[in-house]
Amino acid sequence: MAILEVENLKVSYYTYAGEVQSVRGISFDVECGETLAIIGESGCGKSVTARAIMQLVQKPQGEIKEGSRIVYNGTDILTMDKKKLRDYRGGECSIIFQDALVALNPTMKVGKQIEENIILHQDIDKKLVKQEVIRLLELVGIPNAERRRNQYPFQFSGGMRQRAMIAMAIAGNPKILIADEPTTALDVTIQAQIMELILELKNKLNTAVILITHDFGVVAGSADKIAVMYAGTIVEAGKCEDIFYHPKHPYTWALLNAVPKMEWKSKQLLDTIKGNPPDLIVPPKGCPFAKRCEHCMNLCLEETPEYTYFDNGHQTSCHLYHPDNQNPKVEFAYGGGNDGQ
Amino acid sequence: MDVAIGTMEREEKEDEEKKERNNKNGFYSNTIDDLRFAKVVQSEIMFEESARPNINYWKEVRRVFFKNKIAVTALVIFVLLVIISLVGPHIRNIDYVSMNMSEQNQLPSAKHWFGTDNMGRDLFCRLCNAVGISLLIAVICTVVSIFLGSAYGAIAAYVGGFVDEIMMRVIEILNSIPSLILILLILVVLGNSIPTFIFAMVFTSWTGSARMIRGKVLQLRQSEYVLASEVLGATKRRIVMKHLLPNAASLIILDVAGSIPGFVGSEAGLSFLGLGLQPPAYSLGSLLSLGQQVMAFYPHQMVAPAVLLAIIILTCNLIGDGLRDALDPQLRN
Amino acid sequence: MCIPCKKGGERMVKYILRRFGEMIILLFIIFTATFFLLAAVPGNAIDQKMEKFPESVKENIVHKYGFDKPVLERYAISVKNFVIDHQFGESIVNPGVTLSSLLKDKMPISMQLSARQILFGVPIGMILGIIAACNRGKRIDYFIVISSLVITSVPTLVFALLLQKYFGGRYGLQIIGWSQPGMGFVDGLSYTLLPTLSGVFGYIVGYSRLVRTTMLDSINQEYTMTARAKGLSEARIIYKHVIRNSFIPVCTILPGTIAGVIGGSLFIERVFSIPGIGAYYTTAVSQRDIPMIMGQTMLYTLIYLVSILVSDILYTIVDPRIKFQ
């Protein structure tokens, strides 16, 4: 059963240059205990999506547009009253932010910050709260938990801070854990550890995970489903294997080819995607990727493509699969194959 | 209007471009029945400009400022006040300099709009002059102190090292004496005159601008885009003109806007205490002080300069606030 | 990875001692500078006071105050007096008045005036600032912002004069003067209310603006979003997370305010003829009463420097990230 359904989510931010349509009508759902990876380059709206799911998009800077629905367990969180929303945040669904240094309160002891979650979302005797904090800190692999509890975030190293952030996020036993680029601010060696920790906790606690990242490498071993976002829309979504082995959208192809592979010959060039993503203050008329797409057709510049559906819920929005398209079929080839060699 | 024309032109342009593209891609469209699916040459479209208009910073600043009704109203009032104070004494054609004991302490009338003071001098003309003097002193102080301060700060930041250390220490020492005390001390030492008075006020206020500009220059010098242009071989002159000045300009404008009301206020305060301008020179502060002496019987002599002083400072502050909103993109939401 | 904080106390003592040393050096530099500046002044109170006296009397008095000695010798004597007795000599204009007599007679009055302004002004200002920040963009925020802007534009001096004009002598309020010891509460208030009110608005407005800005800054930080994502109520977010972080700058400014209020009350003391230390300073300055100017300058500077030191120490206490260096 889907625990979270997002329907036609539209989010705008108001900047001094104008209204940025960060997310432009996306839909997806997350089943109990499954991992959904939302992947895309910076500025594509993936973090905004994460914030919207937590109801963290605040007026007047930003706004979730009318017609959007985010349904958790049958109730739309956009119409929840304040009390229920507070229980939902942290208790049902919690979030790990990218940079724990700014996401943790600099002037509050780490233990205290975790305590807040426990007191809010667990029925627990006040005396046992400290024990619970220590248990959580140990669970996320922070040694010397007893001492660490009384330290401030700035006394933690980057990886430890992120672990503390994770401990905080799981303190309320949430059903959904959103990880918003949890490893981006970390060293490569630490990145793997943190990813491992998240997956381990996911299995232990049986939470659903929404993993937000720009790195296909991070997704490979961990996700059940993948949604590829581009310019505020989901251009392709499907099961992990389908996306990796039968990607349909040229943007996904380009992303996959931008990941280095072990088996490549040493002189192989890494593919880059030429051009820049579109300006979301004035979103393009047609397919947002058209201008950077190798397979761009006249129609792509005129009309936004509808979704085309394949097996296993695999879907993509691309005019290549337009029923009237009589161009020769284009298939994905690893390693670029077009240029790059 | 502009916007409508802009879109129309753009649409026309787009249509033409589309035609052109189709011609160029004739090779493809020949083989495919449906023109919709004709392939587009990627290189042709990739760097096409987006429809979003470019924003010129200063143009935008002007637009935002003039959209701010409060700030514009304040500006209009302020300008009117300045004009009246400049023109007022000349059109009234009244002798407001020499004493006229037959017209002492009159109430406002057709001849004397704001009445007369205890020497029988027309208060309206005196107020006009006082506003002029107060503003003149404030402007001179502002210009001198910000110019000196900015130069000092920029030099400290640019030279750096030991020199910077010493220059900052000097500021620290100056800042550890309360400014009012320092002004009074200087006035004691140098005596009361308009130049020494200006000197005293400048002497205690330039340190703020110096610190600010030093901070900004240091920050800019370390910023990556300045480093990038240095790497690209830009000359010092170009870096100063293209990067440092425009970035510091908004700060300096704000500093000016904030300093003028500050100086008007402190000048009035000091003159009120009898430590600023000495008779026969007078400013709003001296008039306030004179007004206070006869306050019990002729309140208008005190209230008029008090209200004027408040209006001048208020309008300056409102203009300054409008400027801050317009100049600082971070504050604009 | 983590900084051991065992020796925090010891380091703090060291830090304070070092800052204290620096302060004394600074005080000495300012003392010297002030002394030589004043020594260079052409005319002092003696000339003004003795104009009509015969030369012999003049010489006698000049001798009494030691103004006939060479500058360097006078400097040495002043340093000795300053360091050993903390004295700056008797007033020339009002014989018998010294800095310590000022501290005893006039300082308490100035302190009372300042304390009243701060005790009412700062908390009210902070509360208004918090209200404005919590309701940012709403009507009440707009109201507080605009009214503070209008009120800041009215100099304390003008406030004092207007209050004195329109309320002094009416409603049982006094026009001038200050409460005497032994006066009843109501009688005392009849003297103190107007002077306090004249100054208090400045503090209310200043602190409401400051608190609003720092709170908004803190509200826009990511940790506030984290707190919201935890499911904390808005009130708890403000109380637990925003206020502490946004009060760090406030704490550091508070001691300066306390020091600065003495200077700011100068106008109020003058308008309401309150026999405080600020009013005396202006008199001393206009009469060129050098020992008094010297003494009071050093007094003000000392208060100011101590307040800076206190605010720096406070800073390290409120913000755990700052360590003593």
Automatic annotation (TrEMBL), chain A:
Main location: membrane
GO BP: any one term: peptide transport
PROSITE patterns in the cross-refs: ABC_TRANSPORTER_1, ABC_TRANSPORTER_2
Coiled coil: none
Domain ABC transporter: 4-256
Membrane-topology annotation of the record: Peripheral membrane protein
NCBIfam families, sorted: oligo_HPY
Name this polypeptide is given: Oligopeptide/dipeptide ABC transporter ATP-binding protein
Organism name: Anaeromicropila herbilytica
TrEMBL record, chain B:
Gene it is expressed from: oppC_1
Membrane topology recorded in Swiss-Prot or TrEMBL: Multi-pass membrane protein
One Gene Ontology biological process: protein transport
GO CC field: plasma membrane
Family statement: Belongs to the binding-protein-dependent transport system permease family. OppBC subfamily.
Transmembrane feature ranges: 70-91, 133-158, 244-264, 302-320
Primary location: membrane
Keywords annotated in UniProt: Cell membrane, Membrane, Peptide transport, Protein transport, Transmembrane, Transmembrane helix, Transport
Location of this chain's protein in the cell: Cell membrane
Residue segments, region Disordered: 1-25
Compositionally biased spans, kind Basic and acidic residues: 8-23
ABC transmembrane type-1 domain mapped to chain residues: 131-320
Protein name listed in UniProt: Diguanylate cyclase
Domain of life per record: Bacteria
UniProt-listed InterPro entries: BP-dependent_transpt_permease, MetI-like, MetI-like_sf, OppC_N
Classification via PROSITE patterns: ABC_TM1 (PS50928)
